Amino acid sequence: MELTFKRMRLPGALALCRDIVRDFHAYELKGYAYALAEIVTRKAIAITVFSGGRRCGYLVHGLPDGQGMLRIMYLATEQRVRGHGIGAAILQKFCRDYPHATLYFEVEDPAFAQDEQERQLMEHRIGFYRRCGFSLLDFKLTAGPWHLFCMTNNPAAAGQIEQRYRSGWGQDVVSR
User: Residues of 132-154 as b/e, b for ≥16 C-beta within 10 angstroms?
Assistant: First the structure.
C-alpha cells in the first residue's frame, strides 16, 4: 500500500479540530490548542495522509529536537479504512522518514474509561501500538483531565522522556 503524506497549511490545521472531536475524547481539544500553537510556531507539523488519492488519515507531530526526540501528538485513520492496515502503514512510513528519532506519545489509561466500550477502545489502541513495535513505559501522566500512559519505540529513552514531561508539564505530572 502506497501512502502519500501532504503537509497541511494553517487553514487545514485549524479545520482539523472537527476531526479530533470525531476521533478522540472531547478533552483532546484542549491538547489540540497546544498542538496548534506548536504548528503556528513551526515546532510541529500537521499532515494529511492519502492512499490511492483519497484521504485516509492524519498525523500531527513535533519536529525532532537536538536529542532526536519526536512526539506524536495525534494519529487517526478515517473510519472507512480502519482495520485495513493503514494506521500501521502510516507508522511504518513515519519511522522510515525519521529513522534515528525516538518517537513517543500518550495513550489513554483504560482504568479511567467512562464505560466498558471506552475501556475496550483504549485497550485496543494500546494493543495496536504494541503490535507496531512500541512499548508502554512504566510511568503514568496525570495533567488536568488526562490520565495517560506513554509509549515509545525506544524504551531505553524512558528517563529522557519522563524528564521532558516533568519539565514541560510540571514535576508532579509523572507518577509510578
Answer: bebeebebbbbbeebbbbbbbbb
